[in-house]
Design a protein that fits this description.
The protein has 267 residues and is an alpha/beta fold. It is 23% helix and 25% strand. The protein has helices spanning 18-21, 55-61, 75-81, 99-102, 117-124, 141-148, 211-216, 226-243; strands at residues 5-17, 30-42, 45-49, 91-93, 112-116, 162-166, 170-173, 176-180, 189-193, 201-205, 246-249. The strands form two sheets. Strands 1-2-3-4-5-6 form a six-stranded mixed sheet. It has a five-stranded mixed sheet with strand order 7-8-9-10-11, covered by helices on one side. Bound molecules: 7-hydroxy-6-methylfuro[3,4-c]pyridin-3(1H)-one and zinc ion (2 copies).
Length: 267
């Protein structure tokens, strides 16, 4: 049985203000941070956890985030570096449906799409202040059409993802664990991957942007529920302790350069 391998796919960078990265703490000023996806080669198939942002979407809807993404940093570009095509991906897991985590879903036309049941609901009934976060619905053309008030004629030529929703903590495949970490959004999941030759990798996703957020127990300003967000950060710490797992943060300008990328992998 082949061992599980984990590759990190570099998705480029965005800019937010320091007060958005560190809620009510700052310091303020432009902060450029990385976005990435996680490719897991598993005996049951190829999984991608999060798919980064779409450059054109950000340029159109949030140009103040100054997206920097080369063609090599798109999902097709990153997969090509590993001699893979988008059609080779069997499952997409989305931690949540903010634009910087689902922008590449649309390329993965053969994949079954997995998320928390509450997160799929949130795409249709988010709070008014979550408008920008949930601005990219390209992963679900039917939801996009509904939002646009377009006639619901079934277009057979568009990408129609297969959704599977989950609730609770789940081992979705051997050694692949989803842990509920709500607060940042209603149905946020973090992912732990158990590997043969090293400590488990615990991908926080946006339940914790960076090591600094964890050190200060400071959440980001983008959140549905700040109290739940803080509880989820505490939960990540406990999970890391319990499983002797290494935390991998979602948007950490300091940690990301130390992560293995490209054709290097964790196993
Ligand atoms: C990077 C980023 N920028 C803006 C928003 C937002 O409005 O909700 C989430 C989010 C982001 O992750
Ligand atoms: Zn987010
Ligand atoms: Zn994010």
């Amino acid at each position: 049985m082949p061992d599980t391998k984990v590759y990190l796919l570099d998705g480029g960078t965005l800019v937010i203000d320091g007060y958005h990265a560190f809620w009510n703490r700052g310091p303020g000023g432009e902060l450029r941070f990385p976005c990435y996806s996680v490719l897991i080669e598993h005996q049951d198939g190829r999984y991608i956890f999060d798919t980064g942002y779409d450059h054109d979407h950000v340029q159109r809807v949030l140009p103040f985030e100054k997206p920097l993404q080369t063609p090599e940093q798109t999902i097709p570009g990153q997969l090509a570096q590993l001699n893979l095509k988008p059609q080779d991906i069997d499952y997409v897991i989305n931690s949540h449906y903010h634009f910087d985590h689902c922008g590449g879903n649309k390329y993965l036309t053969e994949a079954c799409t997995l998320c928390h049941a509450k997160e799929l609901e949130a795409c249709e009934c988010y709070q008014p202040f979550e408008h920008l976060g949930y601005s990219d619905l390209s992963f679900a053309p039917e939801l996009q059409a509904k939002r646009d008030g377009a006639p619901a004629e079934p277009a057979l030529d568009i990408y129609t993802p297969k959704f599977e929703t989950v609730t609770g903590d789940q081992e979705i495949a051997k050694g692949l664990w989803l842990f509920e970490t709500p607060g940042h959004t209603a149905g946020h999941y973090s992912l732990m991957v158990e590997l043969a030759n090293r400590r488990p990798m615990l991908f926080t996703a946006d339940a914790c942007y960076s090591q600094k957020n964890m050190d200060m127990m400071c959440i980001s300003s983008f959140h549905l529920d700040p109290v739940a967000s803080l509880q989820s950060m505490a939960r990540l710490k406990e999970l890391a302790d319990k499983h002797d797992a290494e935390l991998f943060y979602s948007h950490d300008p300091d940690s990301f350069p130390t992560y293995q990328k490209g054709s290097a992998f964790y196993s």
